[in-house]
Amino acid sequence: MITFQFLDWLWIVLFVALMIFFGVYFYRMGKRSQSDFFLAGRGLPWWLPASSVYATHTATDTPIWVAGVVYKYGFAGLWYAFFSAWCAISAFVSTRIFRRSLAYSQAEWQGLRFGGLGAELLRGWLAGWQVFMNMFILGWVGIAMGKLCQMIFGWEIWIGLFVFTTLGAIYVLSSGYWGVVMADFQQGVIALLIIVIVSIWGVVAAGGPDEIISKLGSYNSSVEWEIPNDWQDQQAIIRVSDVETGKPIAQNSESFAIASRISQDAQSRLESRATTLIKSKETNTGEILFPTNVNELQAGEKYTIVWAVDDSYKRLNVDASVDGGTSWSRVASHHFNGQSWRLNFFSFTGMFEGQFPVAWFITMMIIALIGGFGMGTSIDWYPEAQRIQSAKTVKDASYAIWAGSALVLIRNSIWAAAIIGFFVLYPGIAKSGEYEMAWYRIGFEYLPVGLVGFLFAGILAIHLSTVSTHLNLGAMYATRDFYHHYVNPKATEAMLVKVGRISTFVLLLGSFVFGIIIGEEITAWLIFALWIMAAGVWLPNILQVIWWRFNSWGYLSAWMANLGLSWLVVWILPRFGVIPALPDYLQFWILIVLNAIIYLPVTFMSEPEDMDHLVAYYVMSRPIGFWGPVRKEAERQGLISST
């Protein structure tokens, strides 16, 4: 638990008072119309939606996720967060196309791009999907806040989820998007300031840049190992071998025990021992330092294997055996020797081998860069779409998305430096639930009195900016794309604002349910939701922007197939042993291919969209890509110039 002093509480009270002020001050503007409640009247200069893009994508779960991948993979783990680079491409392609359409949401845009029954089904589907997804996102952001409050105050995890998500709902319910975007601006400033302060403190606590580099060069090698559940009550040994020659270069001389259960105190001592051994550079190489015959480990738990071998060996395979070395089970493939590799942004373990292959990197680059030509290629597109439409002009929308994404990439780099510093201080933590809290631990363990309260105020800013965005965004889909379009097309502006507030409250309740379901598995859920779950519709999301022949039935079939296939490939089939557990990048490509087998035949077997409808869309949005027949028809009708 963390003890707050008077100055710490003062920062927190001032921040909460500021949030209440925004709710009251913008109440009148938010209730004027649905355009004000959901888009701030479409009149914002670029820097306001840009700050909102940055603030929205700086949530309480974000440093947890960044810490998870950087602690495990070093600076190369930042490529996991590079998916936001799609914004740099989108800013000058799909952002402009979408802003010209004047659609409130991506669901409404489907009715402009496609026509007939297929478009209606798509709009209803995307409206429902986004209500669900915003509840889901609010749940994982909220449970991250609950996890943090458990560390700070000792609360049950659900208390932080309920209290601080509800706080964000207060000013969203009163002022809508006006309150969201204006609060995001000041929250973004506070968040960036505290991120810089804490990260610098973390680097200094580890000894500064030179000391970090020196220590990483002197530390012993290590790798995470999760012991299989069925290895209980066995005697095991570890072997480290050279990748190139296959020669064993370190191996336990005596076996160590694996029990069905050990005490929590014993578990803590083992973790502390691994950390100490990583820091203590051994002069005698060729040894497995942990675990050894004096250690007893628990089946089903994660540990850090530590070894000391000659620096001339670069890539190593790590194996474990419970039959005296007759057969071996692979722990890590093509793993780097030492710890200096953590400073290398390109520390890949081979083309396809190991935990961090080049094939994964290529996949991420394709997702990030080509994805910018589509709409919806990342779940981040949907909140960005709201900011695009709130911008005053097409040019303002482009600048907003570009600047906001640039800030996100800079922020990730600042965080990463602090996480590397944390590794130097606490190497060898095996449990992801512990090292994911690295950045927060730096702040609360090393900042002086007064700044701790400012840190928590910054955390509130980080949390509330994301909560407010997704409450308002989900309510927009529920109000405009479901209630107004399907239930009550003649609803007054006052009624739509009222329904928007009711929808906000419903999303708040739903987020509590999802937060409790997600629990503590934040990183696993994030990776699944960020790109694996969207893999099957990644290419269709691009095709709908660049290819005139892609129709509503092809797109709808892609969505339906993706929902089932993503769960099958990622969770269900591996769980029952039908297929092996696959790396995430392979899951992505498998889902791309499987989905294409379904939606491409559906597209070609169904009729193209009505040509007059496509011409109207083309003239309005001026899309890029393969629109030759539509452009020729627009020229023939005299709607655009042939030059």
Helix/strand/pairing class, anyone?
Answer: alpha+beta
* CATH class type of the largest domain: Mainly Alpha
Determine the number of helices (DSSP H or I, runs of at least 4 residues): 25
State the total count of DSSP E strands: 9
| Share in helix | 55-70%
Major sheet characteristics: 6 strands, mixed
First and last CA, distance: 69 Å
How much of the sequence lies in strands comes to: 5-15%
* CATH architecture descriptor of the largest domain: Up-down Bundle
**CATH fold-level topology of the largest domain:** Sodium/glucose cotransporter
The stretches of 5 or more residues where confidence is low (pLDDT under 50) are none
CATH H-level superfamily title of the largest domain: Sodium/glucose cotransporter
Give the mean pLDDT: 88
From the spread of the alpha carbons, the general shape counts as globular
Radius of gyration: 26 Å
Number of discrete domains: 2
